[in-house]
Every structure is written in structure tokens, then in C-alpha cells.
Amino acid sequence: MSQLVKVALIQCRTPADQAAALAHVAPLVRAAAADGAQLIATPEATNILERDRAKLMGKIAFAEDDVCVQGLIALAAELKVWLLIGSALVKRPDGGAANRAMLVSPDGAVVATYDKIHMFDVDLPTGERVRESEAYTPGEAAVAIDTPVGRLGLTICYDVRFAYLHRALAKAGAEIITVPAAFTRPTGEAHWEILLRARAIETGAFVIAPAQGGRHEDGRGTWGRSMIIGPWGEILAEARDDEPGVIAATIDLAEVAEARAAIPALKNERAFAPPVDAALAAGA
Questions:
Q1: Quick one: how far is CA 124 from the chain centroid?
Q2: Is residue 282 a part of any domain in this protein?
Q3: Residues near 131 by Cβ (< 8 Å), separated by ≥ 6?
Q4: Domain membership flag for residue 279
Q5: Other beta carbons less than 10 A from residue 232's beta carbon
């Protein structure tokens, strides 16, 4: 029996302050809702992108005080849609900061939050050095939630490289795994599509990945190419560039059970001992 849900992804080029970010993203959310989307998802850092850490820390606010976050919550209630704020960069009560996904129901309630677990601490081949852990406190728990538009498993950007997180979400029943992102251009070109399709195939879940795209006010470049991927790994909808806009697809949640029955990898999993040195194990 089919279980159809229309999903829309917002591709952004988020500015360096929250009011401008809301002005940028709100019309795209409205357009998605007008086209009949029941679940709308925005990218990582929907509310602000500022590469200068001192400036960023001077601008971020608690979620309840963030004009972009609160504007999007009100918009979800006005439009009567499920809205995933893919992530907002917000203050924590302990004085730190979080990279936080927020799922908003059609009555304007924040029904789930997820703080990004895996921090993007890398030295890129381009010479760019990124240390998310210097700005954000990582989350400690995976999050899945039942909704009328499917059971959602929440992740953010760099999490996509950690298959065990997605597997845990799938084993917890997630039918749709969300991967909002602000991928760098070098890593996006090399790995974005491959990783997303692999996570969908491994979990037998729909993967929806709204992305930041283009050259931002703070000088960074992001890859774009937002994607909706089916549980067999097929691309159902995609943005073919990094321009702001909306992509959408009607998905059938019944396909999740079909994919998992065809390839029962989640059930076939077996515990095993850690690797040992083969020569030592043989008594050499």
C-alpha cells in the first residue's frame, strides 16, 4: 500500500546575518508550500553563515531569540507544513554554540532537535583549515522521530561520512534520513553524490539532502546540488548547480519496506570481534 509524501528541499546561499537569511529563505519555503509540499527541509546553517569566528560569535543568538529561526517556525504554522530547519547556528545555555537541526510541526511546535555529532575538523587539499570543534559543542545522541510524513532520522553534513550513525537510525526505524549540508566545493565535487547514494543503499531509506550553494558573503564557496534519493539509491530529484531554489519529489514510504525486504542487510548484521594481526593470530 502506497504512502505518498511530497517532499521539497530548499537550496540556499545564506547571508551573514539572521534577518537577511530569513528574507532569503522564506520566499523559497512559501514557493515549496504553494507547490503542495508536505515536508520542507532547509540546509545546514540556514540562519547565518559567517566564516569569521569572532563575528559569528558576536551574532549568534539563542534559538528563541533568533529572528530567522522564529520566523521559520511562524512560517511553518502559517503554511501548515512540516518544516525541517536543517540546522541553525545557535547559542547554548552553557555559553557555547550548537549546530542544531530543528523539526517544526504544522502547528508551529519544535518537536525534535538534533545537535551535530561529528565536527568537521580538516585540513583541505586547497590549504583551507576548518575546525568546527573550536566553535561548536558536538551533540551526543542520535535522533529519530515519528511524524505523519514518515519516521525521520536527523543528521547534519559531515555526519554523512559516518555510516554507523545512519545505520543506527535505520535500525531505529527511520524511513527518511535528512542530511542538510554546507559542503565545501572540493569535497562536494568529489564525494557528495557518492556518499548520499551509499547511505540510502546501506539503510534502505530515503535520503533528503538540502544544501547551501555558491559564493557567500563571508567568502566561502559551497557545492549546492541538493538531492532527494530513493531507498534503492536512485536520484529522484536534484539541483544541477549551486543556485538558490527548490527541488521536489513525491516519495512512497512503502518503498522503504520493499527495499529492506529485497536486501535485508539490517537483519543480516552480525557481531564480530575487532581485527587482529593475521600473522600473530596464526602463531607466526
A1: 21
A2: no
A3: 119, 121
A4: no
A5: 14
The C-alpha atoms of residue 274 and residue 22 are separated, in whole angstroms, by: 48
Residue by residue, pLDDT tens for the chain (284 residues) are 679 999 999 999 999 999 999 999 999 999 999 999 999 999 999 999 998 889 999 999 999 999 999 999 999 999 999 999 999 999 999 989 999 999 999 999 999 999 999 988 878 777 777 788 888 999 999 999 999 999 999 999 999 999 999 999 999 999 999 999 999 999 999 999 999 999 999 999 999 999 999 999 999 999 999 999 999 999 999 999 999 999 999 999 999 999 999 999 999 999 999 998 876 666 65
Distances (CA, A) of 234 to 151, 194, 201: 20, 11, 9
Cell of 101: 537541526
- Residue count (the chain): 284
Split into its structural domains, the chain has a count of 1
Give the residue from 78, 101, 70 showing the smallest Cα distance to 30.
78
Alpha-carbon distances, residue 117 vs 135, 189, 221, 253 (angstroms): 13, 23, 23, 27
Cut 0.90: pTM above it: yes
Angle between helix 163-171 and 185-203 (nearest 10)? 30
Q: Which residues are catalytic?
A: 44, 116, 157
Phi, psi of 56 (to 5 degrees): -60, -50
C-alpha cell at 147: 511524524
Residue 268 resides in a domain: no
Q: Domain range for residue 97?
A: 4-263
Nearest-angstrom CA–CA distance, 234 and 258: 14
Q: Are 198 and 226 in contact (CB under 8 A)?
A: no
Q: Is residue 179 part of a domain?
A: yes
